[in-house]
């Protein structure tokens, strides 16, 4: 996998620092005017002094293929993703969108976790090794296609100001380094087949004897697999409770299928708690917080909710009374009894987290 990787900046003309701002300006203009495709190309050409060729390229590759805009009745409209990028004005959101449509954009940043500076050819080779199993279709690309596709991804990341180039070498920018620390790219665009593999693993784990801690997992799992495994854990636990809070029964959902109640670890991950689904319980935001902070817990023998004794001193507060009224009620059961919260995990929570 060797050969030169050309550099053609996307999505707009101007310096690298200007290009993300230019993209936001373009999205804002499309969102307010709903122009025809020809008008978009002409606007790009005249606004950013592009050739007709690069104006069409910016339109077709970045806006349409990139999933930021769509055409209906011969006019351009922002997609939901395009509006999200515009509203957030964040390179991270744009990275998420690009990753949906152009596999492996975030993997360029993953490579830089272990390399301070890379020539284009070396970056290309390391990128392919990172994504070849994650996105099986990439294995069928020709060498020329691989180089071209890697070039596009490098250019988008430069346009977003996340990587820089100097004398033929690439490195993370200050913004790229900050993003890498705050939002690991390994968590971006996790593929269904990756989650399916971990789902199978966790379902098998339920058939074995429950282990309170997973002391070896953090050393053995790659960062990417750790994120995948966590997603599989949350999917299984939430599904076992039909995405309903085990304490209060709240079941809210957005039109996109995002549920308010989420899976919570009984023994926290920070304490090396296992991803065994029996170390999980589905809780709404309020009761998740209360559980993590030890304000509430669950009795291991009968699955009844218990509340911290200090709450009695402030029982006149309406929100406290609501919580106290839930005391001694049995939490909702998992659909399948073998996925029920482990008595061992709940006993650990009572002894080490619950405020008593």
* Total count of strands: 9
For the report, how would you describe the main beta sheet? 3 strands, antiparallel
- Counting helices, strands and paired strands, the structural category is mainly alpha
Number of helices: 15
Low-confidence stretches: 1-9
Strand order of the largest sheet: 3-5-4
Q: Summarize the amount of helix as a percent range.
A: 40-55%
Tell me the radius of gyration.
Answer: 25 Å
Beta-strand residue fraction: 5-15%
Mean pLDDT: 87
Number of domains: 2
Pattern of helices and strands: HHHEEHHHEHHEEHHHHEEHEEHH
End-to-end separation in angstroms reads: 61 Å
Question: What coarse outline follows from CA principal-axis ratios?
Answer: elongated
Protein architecture, described:
By secondary structure, the protein is mainly alpha-helical. It folds into two domains: 16-186; 193-352, no CATH class. 48% of the residues lie in helices and 9% in strands. The strands form four sheets. The chain has a three-stranded antiparallel beta sheet with strand order 3-5-4. Strands 1-2 form a two-stranded antiparallel sheet. The longest helix is centred in the N-terminal third of the chain and has 18 residues, at 16-33.
Output the keywords.
single chain, 356 residues, mainly alpha, two-stranded antiparallel ribbon, 15 helices, 9 strands, disordered N terminus
Strand and helix layout:
Elements: H1 16-33, H2 37-48, H3 52-64, E1 69-72, E2 75-78, H4 80-88, H5 91-101, H6 105-111, E3 118-119, H7 120-131, H8 143-159, E4 163-166, E5 169-172, H9 174-182, H10 192-206, H11 217-220, H12 223-240, E6 262-265, E7 280-283, H13 285-292, E8 296-298, E9 305-307, H14 318-325, H15 343-352
Helix pairs in contact: 1-4, 2-3, 4-5, 6-7, 10-12
